[in-house]
Design goal:
Number of strands: 2
Strand order of the largest sheet: 1-2
Structural class: mainly alpha
Mean pLDDT: 82
Distance between the termini: 39 Å
Largest sheet: 2 strands, antiparallel
Low-confidence stretches: none
Strand content: 5-15%
Number of helices: 3
Shape: flat
Helix content: 40-55%
């Protein structure tokens, strides 16, 4: 299970919205890795602001979904059949994840160049 905030391995911390009953359809238990992530989750009522990379990945994934809809000649999601809907969601999620990984690799490479070598 992964932390809902930072995506590290969850380690026994958690959060739920005390304003909602456990049976409420919007109630979701958040699995967390630390008190720091628990504090972030609680302070934002279960949500944190997306990072600049996540925002860029949202746009990229949305473009993939839009390209798929264009290939079908459809603009209304309600008109998609179940297979088209699954393919649309897959296009958005795959575009998002692939772009987020590419941005992370770019950031790691850029940060690696900035790190001086240890002189010993």
């Amino acid at each position: 299970m992964l932390c809902d905030v930072c995506r590290r391995e969850a380690r026994g911390f958690g959060w739920f919205d005390p304003a909602l009953s456990f049976e409420h359809p919007r109630q979701r238990f958040r699995h967390l890795c630390s008190i720091a992530c628990q504090d972030l989750c609680h302070g934002r009522q279960g949500m944190i602001d997306p990072t600049p990379n996540e925002k860029a990945a949202f746009v990229h994934g949305g473009r993939f979904g839009g390209e798929y809809l264009d290939s079908l000649g459809k603009t209304d999601l309600e008109t998609l059949n179940p297979d088209e809907w699954l393919t649309f969601v897959e296009a958005v999620v795959t575009g998002y994840c692939d772009h987020l990984r590419a941005l992370a690799a770019r950031d790691a490479e850029r940060l690696g160049v900035m790190s001086p070598e240890v002189p010993f």
